[in-house]
Amino acid sequence: MQRSHLAKAAMIVFLSLGSLGIVGGSFLIRRAFSSTTESSIITNADRYSEIRNQLWASPAEIQHFPRTISVDSPDVRIAYSPGVAQASTFFQVRQKQSPAQIQQLLAKYRKLAKHKYLGGDTNVHSNLPNGVPTTFFYTGDAERESFPPSYEILVLNAKDKGTPGFKWNHGDSYGVAIDSTASEIVYWAEKW
Question: Where are the transmembrane segments (predicted)?
């Protein structure tokens, strides 16, 4: 009779520990997949240097980004996602400049661009004849992630790292998007 009580107590302890393990494990798995796949819009310019100099793994893709951003810069928006699992990695900075600076930047990047688009997003651009993937408007004010037609998207480089028969499955691209009327420039780099 005593063995029977001991066996029941052991069974209850094992079932309780198993239940706690399942609940705790599912919580950790859910938390890992839900929070790390989301990008965050950062408006604090203090984070820019950390992302640019420490978190972005390919410095060549962001050489065209400004070296620094003044903490006093108005209307700076930064979007960064480290790209967990199969998600793409992106880094985007949107800032206002004077109209004269925007015209200088536009002239400079038009000369360097390998592809040029007006408005749209990566899905639109990559589906055009000889199109390449670009980016979404992560730093935009609206919920839609497509650049308005006033933006000129200038692709400085795009590399297809896909496999034959599955073009652009993996790759990277980077460049700028410039809106002359709003005096804004968006620097972007993306990997998938």
Answer: 6-29
| Dihedral angle sign, alpha carbons of residues 42, 86, 55, 63 | negative
Q: How far apart are the first and last CA of the chain?
A: 64
Cα gap 61→64, rounded to integer Å: 8
Strand order in the sheet with 184-191: 40-42, 77-81, 89-96, 184-191, 171-179, 147-160, 115-120
The Cα-based distances of 131 to 89, 139, 155 in angstroms read 20, 23, 10
DSSP annotation string for 30-49: HHHHHHTT--EEE--THHHH
- pTM given for the model: 0.76
Q: Write out the chain's pLDDT in tens, 192 residues.
A: 566 767 676 677 666 665 555 544 444 444 444 444 455 566 667 889 999 998 888 899 999 999 998 766 767 889 998 876 566 889 999 999 999 999 999 999 999 999 999 999 999 999 999 999 999 999 998 877 999 999 999 999 999 988 887 888 889 999 999 999 999 999 999 998
Helices (H), the chain: 2-35, 46-50, 99-112, 122-126
For the CA atoms of 180, 181, 187, 192, the dihedral, rounded to the nearest 10 degrees, stands at: -110
Rounded alpha-carbon distances, angstroms, from residue 18 to 13, 35, 161:
9, 26, 44
Let me know: does 160 contact 168? Beta carbons within 8 Å: yes
